[in-house]
Specification:
By secondary structure, the chain is α/β, with parallel strands linked by helices. It contains ten helices and 13 strands. Helices cover 32% and strands 16% of the residues. Strands 3-2-1-4-5-6-11 form a seven-stranded parallel beta sheet, with helices on both faces. A two-stranded parallel sheet has the order 7-10. The model has no long low-confidence stretch (mean pLDDT 95).
Length: 331
Amino acid sequence: MRVLIIGGTVFVGRHLTQALQGRGHDVAMFNRGKAAAEEFPGVERLVGDRAVDFARLGDRNFDAVVDTCGFVPHVVGLSARYLAERAQRYVFISSVSAHDDKQLVRDESAPLAVLPEGASAQEFAIEHYGPLKALCERAAQDEFGAERTIVIRPGLIVGPYDPTDRYTYWPHRIARGGDVLAPNSPADPMQFIDARDLAEWIVHLLETGASGAYNAVSPPRAFTIGDVLASCAEAAGCDPNFIWVEEAFLEAHGVEAWMGLPLWIPASAGYPGFFDVGNARAMQSGLRVRPLVETARDTLAWLQTRPPDRPWKAGLTPEREAELLAAWAAA
């Protein structure tokens, strides 16, 4: 296959390129040229802004397109419209957040999020991330049709090269050992997807002519946050002392969920079942989920290449963690 990736090589695009090339497929990339791609010889690089520069593709044709960076529906619509006669299949990377976050998501038929009245669909706003992703899905399907569109709804994507630090904080922190502040309870359910599993499965879907929507997460209730943190300790070869701090205490002390303390979403946030999403369709179509310790071990290995002065985007600083643990002990 000849596959066009809309997006760069920072994270998902990197692993997708590796998976496609590993299976002998031809890859072209269309992006703004901000992320280096020199380590991918043989990839055709097409530089431009997807909102205005698709004509730079010229008369090229593709077996498939994978859109890794669509956030605004009219921009996705422009991409899909231009490519509808130049490609056979369109893969749109959406999000489980495209589902209505007030309802449990047992399968892909669960209701989708709706943009609030008065909110703009013409520009990206993080508070409307889910509804905008749902509209982007529709924009792609409107141009390619349901039978030629694959919608992928990942949860949290983790693994080497993750630029967000949302998962990476944990293997890094746990490798330091000592008393580790952990959120709420080790029994709390957890779901995510290793970017490499995601990439390899997308290639499989393309090779098998799939279509439709898929929730791309690990199986519901397959593991807990306790399992995740234990896998980080195993990967690091250390034996930290996990101190599980109640979420009421964390909220009372101003700890930010998700980014301030990664993988933690308190019940008060109003996202029931965020880590309990049905994924049966994805598993039946060939998704494979690697062991937790493998993700942790490979993430730690990648972290050895991280510049020591690069700021962390998520997680507690050592000083803030010590402060919270002291307050918890006193309480």
